[in-house]
Recover the amino acids of this structure.
């Protein structure tokens, strides 16, 4: 995502055709989400419109899963397990029991996956009373059946 896709005055971000799971473009509003607005203001500060919103030393981040897993491990919401003995490995991907260093792609990652956030968003939007068509547009679900997989009914209602 580029800085030019963020419209701070209108509290929207533009998702370009071909960059969403459905392949369709859409506008996503963050109106009323003060923490999102503050974060986006910081991300766009002092950047040119063509700059990538998230970057590492000015270069676009193409693959973020390793960073995501490391963040989840540090936050206590995920673990990296050795593929050989299923014991926890450290953040350097070393397994002490096996005395082996592993590449991230070989490790078993358990805990919060980035894609889980999409399902959480679908449930939260529906439970907040957002009309389903709008919730589906925001989360990028094209069909009601797929949206329903994420929008699990609350047992208390």
């Amino acid at each position: 995502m580029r800085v030019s896709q963020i419209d701070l005055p209108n509290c929207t971000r533009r998702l370009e055709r071909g960059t969403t799971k459905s392949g369709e473009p859409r506008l996503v509003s963050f109106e009323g989400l003060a923490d999102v607005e503050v974060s986006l203001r910081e991300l766009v500060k002092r950047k040119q419109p063509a700059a990538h919103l998230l970057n590492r030393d000015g270069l676009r981040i193409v693959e973020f899963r390793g960073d995501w897993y490391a963040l989840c491990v540090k936050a206590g919401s995920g673990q990296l397990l050795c593929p050989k003995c299923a014991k926890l490995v450290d953040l350097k991907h070393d397994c002490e029991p096996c005395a082996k260093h592993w590449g991230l792609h070989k490790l078993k990652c358990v805990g919060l996956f980035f894609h889980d956030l999409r399902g959480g968003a679908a449930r939260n939007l529906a439970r907040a009373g957002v009309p389903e068509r709008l919730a589906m547009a925001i989360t990028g679900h094209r069909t009601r059946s797929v949206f329903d997989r994420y929008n699990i009914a609350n047992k208390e209602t």
